[in-house]
Design goal:
Helix Hairpins; HATPase_dom; about 500 residues; Beta-Lactamase; His_kinase_dom; binds adenosine-5'-diphosphate; alpha+beta; phosphoprotein
Length: about 500
């Protein structure tokens, strides 16, 4: 690049200029100025420069320019100076990146500088004009720094940014957000297009959360995990969003938020969830096998005896004349053995029920929260939840794992029933109250699924009763047994018609 040395034109004021020395002009400038030679030494410094850097002229002359630069930038600055001298041109420093310079006493100052090459005979010198930053510059610089910080955080978190203008139904999406939504590089889109990018199965849920925020019925933060469709292979991608609403004159003005790709986490969760449900099925099968073996063991010998007595009775009755006494004795034996089998079964059940369970004082709210988390991670979290919790509900006394298991079973059943019926807007309500007149809590789980018809309802608590192709039919019978073991009861509301409604009770701790 060519040097931009001064090329003074002949002007009528030349005489006048002859009367002023260059030194005087240099010293009259408000801005600090130093002239640096090709070797990097200061060969001139005006009064303003001496004032700003608090050096005397003698101290400044001959000083390497890097003496005015903080130690940590010096090496870089020397290299940069050499590069600049190879191709000098007029430019500024410190407008985009922070330029720190040093006073004589070592104090650092944020400054802005401009560099102009000046040809002095065969040598190229650099005239450095230095100005301190004014308030606006400072504010600009702070803003730039904070934007840069934000950009780095965003990059590190691999997050996309969206900004929904609720008044005009338009959404600004940054490049990363557009990538996540698979909308190319478009940056401002109609709200409907933003919604359309969400997977059809999650769109209603997304819309419900959005409407809650817009109608100001859900606080000012909204978060959720949704699927988006990837074109062209329609691969599913999961994103987690976190939005913050801003209100103005009692209306939601905008929702600003970020979204992150959580597909990997979701795939891992799905694999774990599958593994868990396989283990659970295996476990249920094992429990069934062990229970059946225990029952067989207990009633096998009475049954064998019943068969033998029956054979004797049969034969005694076939003789002519009938051996009445023998037949009577044999039938008496049958009765005794059958009663014995019944007693043994009762003993077995009593033994199993006698097992002590560990109970503790618990907050039902807390157990519900944990159950919801588990459902979420098991892939059963996509429904609209209504929580109706009585304030200041006393603590219950129960076994936490067992109560959580019951909640998970009931809610899973609801979600499965609604999925089988392809219910668009699946809703589950959990209601927590005190059972009137009792020292007990009553928990109600209600869904808007298909419900249970009259014929089926009388069997649902029977072990191994199921209407699902891969069901095991033990969830409800185990849930009932668990609630009873904790001192409560579990039942279904037979009159509820808008879905299914289960209730269970648990005793308060005090
Ligand atoms: P499984 O879930 O393995 O079938 P369960 O004992 O948990 O075993 O449930 C038994 C049956 O009760 C289910 O197969 C289903 O027919 C019925 N059921 C349970 N909960 C619901 C519900 N919320 N809505 C409709 N049907 C239900």
């Amino acid at each position: 690049m060519a040097n931009h040395s001064l090329d003074p034109k002949v002007s009528p004021h030349d005489d006048f200029l002859d009367k002023i020395s260059f030194r005087e002009l240099f010293d009259a400038a408000v801005e600090a100025m130093v002239l640096v030679d090709a070797a990097g030494h200061i060969v001139m410094a005006n009064c303003a420069a001496q004032r700003v850097f608090e050096y005397t002229l003698d101290e400044m002359l001959g000083l390497e320019i890097e003496a005015l630069v903080p130690e940590r930038y010096r090496e870089h600055h020397r290299k940069y100076r050499k590069l600049y001298l190879a191709e000098p041109y007029q430019r500024s420093m410190g407008s985009t990146r922070e330029l720190m310079l040093l006073k004589h006493d070592g104090q650092e100052m944020a400054m802005r500088a401009s560099l102009s090459p000046i040809n002095v005979e065969t040598e190229t010198c650099i005239l450095v004009t230095i100005s301190t930053l004014n308030r606006r510059d400072e504010a600009e610089r702070t803003l730039q720094a904070s934007e840069e910080r934000f950009r780095l955080i965003q990059q590190a978190a691999d997050a996309g940014v969206f900004d929904i203008d609720c008044a005009n139904n338009r959404v600004y999406c940054d490049r990363r957000m557009c990538e996540l939504l698979n909308n190319g590089t478009e940056e401002i889109m109609a709200l409907e297009k933003f919604f359309a990018a969400i997977h059809p199965d999650d769109r209603v849920r997304f819309r419900v959360i959005f409407d809650d925020v817009v109608n100001m019925s859900a606080g000012n933060t909204c978060r959720g995990e949704f699927r988006v469709m990837q074109q062209p292979d329609h691969r599913e991608r999961w994103i987690a969003t976190l939005g913050q609403a801003q209100f103005e004159n009692g209306r939601t003005k905008r929702i600003v938020g970020i979204a992150r790709d959580i597909t990997e986490r979701k795939l891992l969760e799905k694999a774990l969830q599958q593994q868990r449900s396989e283990i659970e099925t295996l476990f249920s099968q094992q429990v069934a096998v062990i229970t059946a073996s225990a029952i067989a063991h207990e009633i096998n010998s009475p049954l064998t005896a019943v068969a033998a007595y029956s054979d004797v009775a049969h034969r005694a009755l076939s003789y002519r004349p009938i051996e009445k006494v023998k037949a009577q004795e044999a039938l008496e034996g049958c009765i005794q053995q059958a009663l014995q089998a019944g007693r043994k079964l009762h003993e077995l059940i009593e033994f199993l029920q006698k097992r002590e369970i560990q109970t503790e004082e618990l907050s039902l709210n807390r157990i519900i929260e944990d159950a919801l988390l588990q459902l979420h991670s098991d892939g059963y979290g996509s429904f609209h939840l209504t929580l109706d919790l009585e304030p200041d509900l006393p603590l219950i006394r129960a076994n936490k794992i067992q109560v959580q298991k019951v909640l998970v079973n009931l809610i899973k059943n609801s979600v499965q029933a609604m999925r089988i019926e392809n219910i668009d807007h699946s809703e589950i309500a959990i209601i927590l109250k005190t059972l009137p007149g009792e020292n007990m809590a009553i928990v109600t789980i209600r869904d808007n699924g298909p419900g249970i018809d009259e014929k089926t309802i009388s069997h649902i608590f029977d072990p191994f009763f199921t209407t699902k192709p891969t069901g095991f039919g033990v969830g409800l019978s185990i849930s009932r047994a668990l609630i009873e073991a904790n001192g409560g009861q579990l039942w279904i509301d037979p009159d509820f018609r808008e879905g299914a409604q289960f209730h269970f009770t648990l005793p308060y701790a005090s």
